Amino acid sequence: MLEKKPDSENGLAEEATPHYYGHRERLRERFREAGAEALSDYELLELLLFRALPRRDVKPLAKTLLEKFGSFAEVIAAPAVRLAEVKGLGDAGVTELKVVLAAASRLLRGAVKKRPVLSSWSIVLDYCRTAQAFADREQFRVLFLDKRNQLIADELQQIGTVDHTPVYPREVVKRALELSATAIILVHNHPSGDPTPSRADIQMTQQIIAVASPLGIAVHDHIIVGKDGHASLKGLKLI
Fold first, then answer.
1. Which of 200, 191, 153 is nearest to 172 (CA)?
2. Of the candidates 180, 157, 160, 178, which has an alpha carbon nearest to the alpha carbon of residue 168?
3. Would you tell me the crossing angle of helices 169-178 and 199-212 to the nearest 10 degrees?
4. Spatial separation of the C-alpha atoms in residues 233 and 101, rounded to whole Å
5. What is the pLDDT of residue 15?
6. What is the pTM of this model?
7. Which structural domains are found in the chain, ordered by start?
8. What is the rounded CA–CA span in Å between residue 238 and residue 203?
9. Cβ(232)–Cβ(195) under 8 Å?
């Protein structure tokens, strides 16, 4: 809240500096000097919201977002329509948060593209989790690889419901042939948070392998991601 104070020269009232400006500067200075690890989740959210909401004390809003969604990552990855439900965030605040998610995803995708996928598996997992672990509907994507196991393309194939995504094995393999891919990695998310593969997940993966294998296309893995972690069908010896 702005307070008025008398102007000592002309007797007119002028606006005082809002009380939260000093807090903003101290928070920015701590970030510059000690890095993000020195800040809590709500303080990092505050930093993001300063520019979008320059005339508001955003600390209460940052705490509300964490109460609603659970963590910094879940706030950033929350669907825009759900973020818009939070009073006071507005279009500018939602956009600022989604820009951060897009930047993080593009940064990791760039790292994946620069090296053979199978030799940088941890980066691949980080990218997959950033891209879709916190989505509220199932998303099925495919990473298409060349003969050196480098990424040719990363494509979101289908978006389904909270617990099902339709997948068409022949369409997946057809797209691999169009891109001259020699291997693929399947990825989808479980909005429930539990990445444990279902019977349907296993059967669908086996169907894709059955179509792809005779055409010389390897299915390296099927990764399932959720907010509680990830599961690899190959790691679990299910394929």
1. 153
2. 157
3. 40
4. 27
5. 53
6. 0.71
7. 20-104 (1.10.150), 117-232 (3.40.140.10)
8. 10
9. no
